[in-house]
Design goal:
The protein is of the alpha+beta class. Helix content is 33%, strand content 23%. The strands form 2 sheets. A 7-stranded mixed β-sheet has the order 2-3-4-1-5-9-8, sandwiched between helices. A two-stranded antiparallel sheet has the order 6-7. Helix 5 packs across helix 6.
C-alpha cells in the first residue's frame, strides 16, 4: 500500500459529523530573546496583542494582518510552579479554540484521544478541576498530546476580547458554531424577557442578531 493510498483511506475513514469546530487560535514559538522578536515582528506590521512578564517567563502575542490565528513568542527561565497558565502555554505546540469545551473534550475522548479533564486556573490554587464556574471566555481548558509528545491546549471561547476581531462582519465557520451562538442568544433573550415582565418580544430576531454580533466582536452585550 503506497503513501497516497494510505492518506486517502485515512481521509475516508475520518468521521465528518462533529458537535463543535476546533480552530487553530495560537501557534507557540519559543525564542531566546523576546525583545528582539518583539522588535522584528512589530516591524512587519503585526499587531501586538499582549506582552506579559512574570516569575520565570516572558511571552508576547502577535497577530498577522487579517489572520484569525495569532503567534505567541516566549521564553521560560524556571521550572518552578509559578504562573501555571503561561508556563503550560509555553510548553505547548499551540492553542485550539472551541465554543463548548466539554463537548469538544467528549468528542476527542470518543476518538480514542487521551485528553485531560476540563480545568481552569484559580489564582493561588493553580489548576482546578472543571470549567470556569461562570463559563467566561478564555478561562476553561483541556489538553492532549500527539504520539510525538506535542501538547495542544484546548480553550473555550464564546465571546472575543475587545480588539481581537477587527472586522465589522459577523461570520461563523460552520453550522455547529452558528447553532452554539444561537443557543447562547436564546438563553440571554430568556433573561431579557424576564426583565420585561415575561412579555413576548416580537422583535426577538433583531435582539438575537445584536447579541450574536456583539458577542462575536467582544463588545458590550445588549440588555
Amino acid at each position: 500500500m503506497n503513501d497516497i493510498q494510505q492518506r486517502g483511506e485515512a481521509a475516508i475513514a475520518t468521521p465528518a459529523a462533529r458537535g463543535v469546530d476546533i480552530r487553530l487560535e495560537v501557534a507557540v514559538i519559543p525564542v531566546s530573546d523576546v525583545d528582539r522578536a518583539k522588535h522584528f515582528y512589530s516591524g512587519l506590521g503585526w499587531r501586538l496583542d499582549a506582552d506579559l512578564t512574570g516569575d520565570g517567563f516572558r511571552v508576547i502575542q502577535f497577530t498577522p494582518p487579517g489572520s484569525p490565528c495569532s503567534v505567541v513568542f516566549g521564553s521560560r527561565t524556571t521550572t518552578e510552579p509559578y504562573a501555571r497558565l503561561e508556563l503550560d502555554v509555553l510548553k505547548s505546540a499551540g492553542e485550539l479554540v472551541v465554543s463548548d469545551i466539554e463537548v469538544a473534550r467528549a468528542e476527542l475522548a470518543d476518538r480514542g484521544v487521551d485528553v485531560s479533564e476540563v480545568f481552569h486556573y484559580a489564582g493561588s490554587e493553580g489548576r482546578v478541576s472543571g470549567p470556569d464556574p461562570e463559563r467566561r471566555s478564555y478561562l476553561s481548558w483541556a489538553s492532549f498530546s500527539d504520539p510525538a509528545g506535542n501538547i495542544w491546549m484546548l480553550q473555550e471561547v464564546t465571546a472575543r476580547a475587545p480588539g481581537r476581531v477587527e472586522t465589522g462582519e459577523t461570520t461563523f465557520g460552520s453550522s455547529a458554531e452558528l447553532a452554539a451562538a444561537l443557543r447562547r442568544a436564546s438563553v440571554a433573550h430568556g433573561e431579557h424577557e424576564k426583565r420585561t415582565g415575561g412579555q413576548r418580544d416580537e422583535n426577538w430576531p433583531d435582539w438575537y442578531a445584536q447579541h450574536m454580533a456583539a458577542e462575536h466582536a467582544g463588545k458590550e452585550l445588549p440588555l
